[in-house]
């Protein structure tokens, strides 16, 4: 973390960037000509129609490169062998930045990295001043908590009558932290105490992207009912009618592999590293794939990593820097090659795709499934969305029509 913080400070100093954002400029499009958030950029739209998918789940793991996670000698055999054989392996799937928080933000909003979330938002700070948006709706300036007019997949789903929930393992597990039981986050301007976990709680605010949007946290009733503990998921999976259309699942710092087995992630009950990843996935993936919403209403489960090793700053898909940072990957154009797995009744087991994707492409692909416009950098012209290379089960028939809530 210290090395990354020094790199960010050096970049900021070299370019004259300040936390207040006064020296920032969008090098791609003047503010007066930014692309509206409602723009839809359906590459392949004229030749491909995605199958009807009624429920989406996303599980995000931490900080590993594709060559290690999915290699022949992967230390996570359930991930690398069992799950890869069960669905589609996207071997050229890239993260969009370094370090963690900026990737999570990109996954749900298409907003590019800025110098504050590239340092994992040590303080829960607003964009100050609010300089508006630039090209593709990217928020200008530096900050962590986005203004209320910046959309994300949750606000889109709400506006179009779909349901969503954000499940977070270990939220409010340690009474000494004095956190909220739901919608847990620091107060604006306060230091984020969850940057360091404790022996009894491994929840990290920085891995919960939904609380970084005023459009969500300023509505306490909405946030409390939608940003919840992972313990709520089993009850929601019991019936298709109760299962959200969109679910984002964040393991704790042991289950996502961020922390290694040691003083906080104690094996065998609560291991970290790849052992923790496999333990988490073995427990939760079958709950999802055996649920009525997945089996009877064409579910889709995507599993990926937030970023690769920080030594890999490669990117793809025409990714460009945002107005708040010159380099999305600190030392390069992206967050490195991480790989991803997609499971669905509409995918033949053992499918392998070599198409280039990244977190923006994933967001755009999910927006396509719900017939939503693309947000932020999901609109970039070179982004490609999930198509025939992923949805390989051509006998997948539309399930019964699901009424919107």
Shape: globular
- The chain-level structural class is alpha/beta
**CATH level-1 class:** Alpha Beta
In spatial order, strands of the major sheet run: 5-4-6-1-7-8-2-9
Tally of contiguous helical segments:
11
Query: Distance between the terminal alpha carbons, to the nearest Å?
Result: 43 Å
Name the CATH superfamily assignment.
Alkaline Phosphatase, subunit A
Measured as a percent range, the helix fraction is: 10-25%
CATH architecture: 3-Layer(aba) Sandwich
Question: Could you give a short account of the major beta sheet?
Answer: 8 strands, mixed
Low-pLDDT runs of 5+ residues are 18-46
Q: Which percent range describes the beta-strand content?
A: 5-15%
State the CATH topology: Alkaline Phosphatase, subunit A
- Tell me how many strands there are: 10
The overall number of domains is 1
Average of the residue pLDDT scores: 89
SSE run: HEHHEEHHEHHEHEHHEEEEH
| Cα-atom radius of gyration | 20 Å
Oligomer: single chain
Q: What's the topology here?
A:
Elements: H1 2-15, E1 55-61, H2 66-69, H3 77-86, E2 88-90, E3 93-94, H4 101-109, H5 153-159, E4 164-168, H6 214-217, H7 220-226, E5 227-229, H8 233-237, E6 246-250, H9 273-289, H10 292-296, E7 299-305, E8 340-343, E9 351-353, E10 357-358, H11 359-369
Parallel strand pairs: 1-6, 1-7, 2-9, 3-10, 4-5, 4-6
Antiparallel strand pairs: 2-8, 7-8
Helix pairs in contact: 4-11
Walkthrough of the structure:
The chain is α/β, with parallel strands linked by helices and 405 residues long. It has one domain: 3-Layer(aba) Sandwich (Alkaline Phosphatase, subunit A), CATH 3.40.720. Helix content is 23%, strand content 10%. The chain is built from 11 helices and 10 strands. Strands 5-4-6-1-7-8-2-9 form an 8-stranded mixed β-sheet, with helices on both faces. It has a two-stranded parallel ribbon with strand order 3-10. Helix 4 (101-109) runs parallel beside helix 11 (359-369). The longest helix has 17 residues, at 273-289. The radius of gyration is 20 Å and the shape is globular.
